[in-house]
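Researcher: Here's a chain I'd like modeled. Treat it as a single chain, no partners, no ligands.
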Amino acid sequence: MIKIESPNQCSGCTACASICGHKAITMVPDAMGFKYPKVDPEKCIECGLCEKVCPFNDAYETPSNFPEPITMGSRLKDEVTLKYSQSGGAFVGLSDVVLNNQGIVYGCGMDSAFRAVHRRAISKEERDSLRGSKYVQSDLSDIFLQVRKDLLDGFKVLFSGTPCQTAGLNAFIPKKLRQNLILVDLVCHGVPGPAIWSSYLKYIEANYGGEVESAVFRNKRKFGWRIHKETFTIRGHGEIDSEDFTNLFYQHLILRESCFNCPFTNLRRPSDITIGDLWGAEKVNAELANDKKGLSLVLINTPAGQELFDQAQSRMESFPVAIKKVIQPNLRHPSKRPSARSKFEKEFEKYGFQYVLKKYGPESFRYRARYILFRLMHLPIGAFNRLKRLVTK
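Model: Modeled as a single isolated chain. Structure tokens:
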């Protein structure tokens, strides 16, 4: 049976729970809401399938991958639809092809309680609820089983998710069904805990005395595609903007332990296509980068990915880019684990969200000191020398 010796060895992809025909494995959340497999020894028959299917290691299979990805910049031609996508709308362009051919799309959306959940979409209207960034680990539930059923029924399926989720699904789906499955992963910085996010929502509601009616992780229409701020609509208060959750995210304090040990942070992608924000766009296409409409980075990893991308070009404008000019840190290495990560989790479990926000958030001395140091490190040499002379007078 599968045994998780350390939290950094499990991404919570659900492949082990999905493959168990005896339903001996359930996914159980920890204090931060991250789910891990728990085996019922009375149901387990020691068949070993759960151990064999686990993809969280350096030996994950990519037999169909090109020697290196074909790298493109891309965005939707339809500017109205583009406004509702976080960057360039690559997910919409690719999924349109599948839906137009009576296929099925799976991706991450928000439920009525603003939990991140994976869902099945058979129409563009359903698919539209999956657009946009969600900076929290999604609940996969029994999605892998649903995907397998759709493939057995002969449907073309596009599944989008984090690299660990696509690797988990790829390991779970039998090879004979794989030809109708398109995997689209993300350039992933790491996934925050669902319990942190839900506690943050409760904090927002208590702070403003009203119910959260909508939540957006990055408000492109208000701040542009490069700015990362959360926007909430609060009943009786209208829209409010915040960077509290964002700041904890970029300090890596709320990321899953496995994110610091991720084997997928390289160009050997566990998917047919990889999408993300085209950071560094000004180096490759200054005109498009400066119009603030958003651009997607697209890595085409397999022939199947190439075919889908080519079919999407009637609704997208794309151009080749040199990967060395736009490669992101998480295509080179995992996010770095902060020294305070374990302490943060213990304090969140014991004292709650408001306590850790005050201690580690943007109003804390710790965060302000880090911010000042960052700004000093990025001052021009002349300005730094002038500041140094003022301080030492």
